[in-house]
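ARCHIVE CARD
CATEGORY: sequence design from structure
SOURCE FIELD: tokenized fold
FIELD CONTENT:
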């Protein structure tokens, strides 16, 4: 087939033609820096795995010599992703993975509720587990009258469905992929097989991996500090609330457990409490109300604002050109590449104005 001949745009004939072109090496980029093993893997993956992507991404179905640079770039990117097998699988089957995850967590939570309290029926157990995981906070039973073991399991379910945990799972998977790639690169360097192109890619991977570690530190540090601060404020304010102490004593709940549970529930935007009337009894306690409002905003609506703000502050305290400084710069320059809930400066500013 001539280079100037367009590929048919409909049916299986188009895809077959693209595969044939790939197998004939018409689209393999001329990169002398690639080793023979790397080039062999490159060609194999290009021939077997990229026909569908090329079929959907090349406009008008024209595959001519003048567009070879665009195709080469696409092939390099896709071949690079192929080496991260777990990430590639999750990318292709993401929604199935998420749906299966929530289903399994809800079913396990409902089973744990049934084992902890035999008087619960299966519908209430599933509903309460789904309420905890989804952060809806709805309840079909008297939640404050439940056993402490159920309250403990509900906190675990809140964490399993929380925004910080779910959004950092892709970050951890990417770090795992980078770590595997780093070990392969080190092995090739010791054997003297690493090319200049591979060394450049490895350096960029190392910088991005350090940036991802900073993101995890920011997110989980923010979560811990906010909830710990909420616990302290709830606890010390409760010491001077005789009405609260009397209600908790009647329920057999300690003040420190009330403070922990309310802090976690507020930060996760769940809404479940250990008091029978939710926060009605705190209508005259501004510390409880303001702390709850702060945790609600910090854990959900203002979460992107806090993450970027913390990264900016950390950058100010880092020595210029140090590894940490470079990592924070990478995070702030490529926020959505590192973390889905960290926005560019302009978008973060508009979110702050809206709030």
């Amino acid at each position: 087939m001539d280079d100037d001949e367009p590929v048919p745009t409909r049916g299986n004939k188009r895809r077959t033609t693209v595969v044939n072109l790939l197998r004939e090496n018409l689209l393999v980029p001329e990169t002398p820096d690639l080793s023979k093993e790397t080039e062999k893997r490159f060609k194999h993956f290009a021939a077997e795995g990229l026909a569908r992507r090329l079929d959907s991404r090349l406009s008008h179905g024209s595959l001519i010599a003048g567009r070879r640079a665009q195709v080469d770039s696409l092939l390099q990117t896709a071949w690079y992703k192929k080496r991260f097998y777990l990430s590639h699988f999750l990318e292709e089957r993401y929604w199935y993975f998420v749906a299966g995850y929530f289903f399994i967590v809800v079913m396990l939570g409902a089973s744990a509720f049934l084992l902890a309290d035999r008087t619960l029926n299966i519908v209430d157990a599933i509903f309460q587990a789904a309420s905890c995981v989804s952060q809806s906070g709805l309840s079909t039973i008297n939640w404050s009258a439940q056993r402490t073991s159920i309250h403990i399991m509900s906190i675990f379910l809140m964490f399993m469905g929380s925004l910080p945990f779910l959004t950092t799972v892709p970050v951890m998977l990417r770090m795992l992929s980078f770590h595997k790639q780093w070990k392969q690169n080190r092995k090739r360097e010791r054997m003297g097989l690493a090319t200049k192109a591979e060394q450049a890619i490895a350096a960029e991977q190392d910088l991005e991996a350090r940036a991802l570690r900073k993101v995890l530190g920011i997110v989980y540090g923010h979560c811990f500090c906010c909830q710990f601060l909420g616990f302290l404020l709830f606890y010390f304010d409760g010491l001077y609330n005789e009405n609260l102490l009397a209600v908790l004593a009647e329920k057999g709940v300690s003040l420190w457990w009330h403070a922990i549970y309310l802090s976690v529930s507020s930060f996760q935007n769940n809404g479940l409490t250990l008091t029978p009337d939710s926060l009605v009894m705190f209508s005259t306690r501004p510390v409880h109300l303001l702390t709850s409002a702060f945790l609600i905003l910090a854990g959900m609506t203002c979460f992107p604002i806090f993450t970027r703000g913390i990264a900016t502050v950390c950058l100010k305290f880092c020595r210029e050109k140090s590894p940490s400084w470079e990592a924070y710069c990478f995070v702030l320059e490529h926020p959505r590449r590192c973390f889905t809930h960290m926005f560019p400066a302009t978008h973060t500013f508009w979110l702050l104005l809206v709030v």
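CARD ANNOTATION: The chain has 17 helices and no strands. Residues 1-12, 22-34, 44-67, 78-84 have pLDDT under 50 and may be disordered.
SHELF: design records, drawer C
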